[in-house]
TrEMBL record:
InterPro entries: Cyclic-di-GMP_PDE-like (IPR050706), EAL_dom (IPR001633), EAL_sf (IPR035919). Gene3D superfamilies: EAL domain. This is EAL domain-containing protein. Residues 8-262 form the EAL domain. PANTHER family: CYCLIC DI-GMP PHOSPHODIESTERASE PDED-RELATED, CYCLIC DI-GMP PHOSPHODIESTERASE PDEF.
Amino acid sequence: MDGAQIERTAFEINLRHAVEREQLEVHFQPLVDGRDGSLRGGEALLRWRHPDLGLIPFRRFLGTARDGGILAELGDWVLHAACRHAARWPADGEHPPLLTINVAIEQIMQGDLAERVAMALQASGLAADRLELDIDEIVLKEEHSRILGTLEKLAALGVRLAIDDFGRGLSSIPRLKRYPLRAIKLDPALVRDVGVREEAEAVVEAMTSMAGILGLEVFARGVEGEAQQAFLCALDCHLQQGPLFGRPMGAEEFAAYVADRGTAS
């Protein structure tokens, strides 16, 4: 075994013990209404505070977690931790802050995700209609009956379901009505090219039009500039997220941010 393999093995072993060693953290990135900048919620983002490497974003250990078969375990930890934090956010006003959590297909294929979600909601006291689960677009290409059964159970709980990073596979559009979905979230790569490539703008416009016909909300992730913000709002894509509106924050910092925004409104 060479040095690189030893490092990869040690990295995976440390990740397997991250939960019990209390090295995991959940951060949140604001979701806003692009028309007036009002806060509409926060997306939960997993972070690993490695004792030697510092704070590591999820994308850097996603592959290790998937290869090691612990992605569902980490997802379960995020679900419980994020619901506990969100239950403490001020929820007064017309739009109580929505919590959005990404769900891996491995969690869906376990078959008991609805039961795990119900347990997390009950333990935290978070209302089901304040939770949105973002599902990878890959589920639109799968034919497994377990996916449909699990998503129907989640919808029956009152949880919102959305397709994440939508737009990487346009062949998925006809399959959107197969599942009890409430929203789609545009792939950040498409949003990034708004104002740069006319093709990207045409695709985004077509998707928002199609979503409206299907009764789906459209969220835009990765919004970086005011021109993108304005273009999306003109298409009635008001729910937006990205560097223009705020970076990811630690749980306590985000809770204070929610409280401040509530006071300001």
